[in-house]
Write a structure and sequence with these properties.
The chain has 598 residues and is an alpha+beta fold. The protein is 45% helix and 17% strand. The N and C termini lie far apart (95 Å).
Length: 598
């Protein structure tokens, strides 16, 4: 099979890309990975294209380009290794026509990559092809095919699910029955581990402790166990320690109702055939079929575990905790950006504190440290800083307003340029869409495109125009808001005056003055421990405030022999100097230390 195109001198890898979806059943033999490899290798050999390398995605849909083989190909393109890409046909490359068009018409030409689709007679040499008018239509047809297949698969999926057939893969402890793939049977080896986990939990062990016991007893974790049995269930194929268990895995096992012998269907869903990310369904939409397979755990045992889990993980009700802290929704973790959650100490209900909502041990998140901080310490420090801020306002209100304006102007101008650039791009695109719709309509009248394809494309363009109109309104509104910063500055000063007239800080004034507060993890050991608290004010961001006269540092006893002491920054870059020299900023901090002996 000789190419009749102009031959192009290509250096680098000749990438032979193969893809097969689980839904490609109609002509699976001809589309098999082995046949694709054979065809691509023969084409490369006949056209004297050497240095070939296969990139394979077996079992991946064409509507999503987040495939391991394709991502590896993109990495090699970015490194400049690839000169040519060969696929069997356009459908093997992808079935999402906008993405396919982007890669074939923009990305590959920009990276000097030649693209060949053998069966579709596509050979883009220097970004050109004799099939320019046909390729978009072909891509649309491929996407429509994927949509039709997805609809049929979803319908069959729903029918099976409503009949009580398990829709998910069997959990750890079960395998599919070799005689009946629709039924789960117990895997004795893994089931014994599941029973041990439930027993350990009812004996009073926590999830972290159970995970440690599993590792000490040298039980393979779920992913490693499946890999040892030749079962492909995702996860890392090679692990530094296959015996390491996570507390989140233990929690997942303890909450699986399937271990009672039940089938739970429709727990998750995907938004569309293009987006395969799973979304949790509300529990009222689940379908539960009891006693569909042999139970590993007695139902009574499972219920006892759920009761203990609920009492362990549920935070105390607000009525017990007392009034909600005014700092809720304002404190953030300085490391991961998550909000800090408000708690009451279970041993001493007079102690209230905050901790990171993304902490790995408490909430199975990703943040490695708790960022613990006492609520009364936060309140005392913020009040102290606001009173210091008020002193500068009293000293010279006009000068104070000038400093605030100078502080914000750089930040506002930078943000304004970004918004203006985005607005220009959106306005240019929305001006082009009517022309595209007109061309599309003319193509329909002349017979270049079918009625069905016209409907699909015109709807795509109409949807895009609607989204752009909303985006443009939002961007214009944002520019208008930036022009009102003068009013915000006056509101900020007014809020400081309101605070000066109050005995205690209120939620309303706090929200008028402070945007958010970043809390850092404690550093150091013993009496040299420090913890930073950075206050970001409305309109101006964060400020280092040096008092006009020295205030005593705030100290709070947090446990026996340990206190937390507030320490302000060095006075070198402070508002005091701004009155004569100009603006600078630095962070505020806490220092945790043992109280001085009397």
């Amino acid at each position: 099979m000789q190419s009749n195109k102009k031959q192009k001198q290509v250096t680098g890898i000749t990438a032979l890309y193969c893809r097969l979806s689980r839904d490609d059943n109609t002509d699976r033999e001809s589309n098999s990975i082995a046949n694709q490899k054979k065809m691509l290798q023969a084409y490369a050999r006949e056209n004297h294209m050497g240095n070939t390398k296969f990139y394979v995605d077996d079992g991946y849909t064409g509507t999503n380009f987040n495939r391991p083989g394709f991502q590896e190909l993109l990495d090699d393109i970015e490194m400049g290794y690839v000169g040519t890409i060969i696929v069997k046909d356009m459908s093997r490359f992808g079935r999402e026509y906008l993405q396919v068009g982007y890669y074939t018409e923009n990305y590959f030409p920009d990276h000097n990559v030649r693209f060949i689709a053998i069966n579709d007679n596509v050979d883009c040499v220097d970004g050109a092809t004799d099939m320019d008018d046909f390729i978009p239509i072909k891509n649309i047809m491929n996407e429509l095919y994927a949509k039709d297949i997805s609809r049929k698969v979803r319908s069959a999926h729903n029918t099976r699910g409503r009949a009580g057939e398990p829709l998910s893969q069997p959990p750890y402890g079960y395998v599919k029955d070799p005689q009946d793939k629709k039924r789960w049977i117990i895997d004795p080896e893994a089931a014994s581990v599941v029973r041990e986990i439930f027993k350990l939990y009812l004996d009073g062990n926590g999830e972290d402790t159970i995970a440690r016991i599993m590792q000490e007893e040298q039980h393979l974790n779920c992913t490693a166990y499946w890999a040892s049995k030749g079962i492909n269930r995702g996860g890392k194929k090679s692990q530094p320690n296959p015996y390491k268990w996570k507390s989140s895995t233990i929690h997942g096992i303890l909450t699986r109702q399937e271990y009672c012998g039940d089938v739970l269907n429709f727990k998750t869903r995907s938004k569309s055939f293009k987006n395969h990310r799973r979304i949790d369904n509300p529990k009222e939409d689940w379908m539960v079929f009891e006693d569909r397979h042999e139970a590993i755990i007695l139902r009574d045992t499972y219920q006892k575990v759920q009761k203990r889990l609920k009492s362990t993980h549920q935070r105390a009700p607000k009525e017990i905790n007392g009034p909600k802290s005014i700092f809720c929704d304002i404190l953030r973790c300085a490391d991961c950006g998550s909000k800090l959650w408000y708690h009451t100490n279970t041993q001493n209900r007079d102690i209230h504190y905050f901790s990171c909502s993304n902490y790995v041990k408490d909430y199975r998140g990703t943040c490695l440290t708790r960022h613990y901080i006492r609520a009364d310490a936060v309140e005392a420090v913020v009040e102290m800083e606001l009173r210091r801020l008020a002193e500068y306002l009293v000293a010279d209100e006009n000068r104070f307003a000038e400093i605030l304006a100078r502080r914000s102007i750089k930040q506002v101008e930078s943000e304004k340029k970004t918004v203006q650039s985005e607005l220009r791009k959106s306005e240019m695109r929305i001006e082009i869409i009517p022309k595209l719709l007109k061309t599309l309509y003319e193509d329909k009248l002349s017979g270049k495109t079918s009625e069905d394809n016209y409907c699909v494309l015109s709807q795509e363009y109409s949807d895009e125009r609607e989204q752009l109109q909303k985006k443009i309104l939002k961007l214009r509104r944002k520019l208008t808001e930036m022009g009102e910063k003068e009013n915000e500055r006056e509101e900020f000063i007014h809020a400081i005056r309101k605070f000066m007239e109050m005995r205690t800080l209120t939620k309303q004034v706090l929200n008028e003055l402070i945007d958010h507060i970043d809390v850092y993890e404690t550093q150091g050991t013993g009496k040299n421990k420090t913890q930073r608290l950075v206050i970001y004010y409305k309109f101006v961001g964060y400020l280092d405030i040096d008092p006009t006269q020295r205030h005593p540092n705030y100290t709070a006893d947090i446990r026996e022999g340990v206190a937390i002491e507030y320490v302000s920054c060095e006075p070198s870059d402070s508002l005091k100097e701004l009155f004569s020299e100009g603006y600078n900023a630095c962070d505020d901090s806490f220092e945790e230390a043992k109280p001085e002996q009397a």
